[in-house]
Design brief:
single chain
Length: about 100
């Protein structure tokens, strides 16, 4: 499958991104999956799980421990199991993580 990660993305500790899994209805336990796309300025908080075929929109935040089963709209905050809308995020983002030393959070 595939994984695309944009610019200035913060992937915190123990995040899991799946692009491939098994079809539980398949008689031979066949593989199934789809690419995951993580756009610019996304923050994936600790222990978030992203399932196959999901796009995380620009500037979105996935809260700690969330399980993302569907696409996340740009500049939204989602959390829970399954992840649901919590809030909007500021759209005026211009930080550059390229040279930053960021604490593990």
């Amino acid at each position: 499958m595939g994984l695309t990660i944009g610019n200035n993305v913060n992937i915190s500790t123990q995040v899991v991104i799946w692009t491939l899994h098994h079809d539980y209805n398949s008689p031979d336990f066949a593989q199934a999956g789809s690419p995951v796309i993580i756009e610019d300025y996304v923050w994936l908080c600790s222990r978030a799980i992203i399932l196959p075929g999901v796009t995380i929109g620009e500037g979105a935040v996935v809260a700690a421990g969330a399980v993302v089963t569907k696409n996340v709209e740009p500049y939204t905050v989602v959390g829970g199991v399954p992840a649901k809308y919590i809030a909007k995020r500021n759209t005026n983002l211009n930080y550059d993580l390229g040279n930053a030393i960021i604490p593990i959070i």
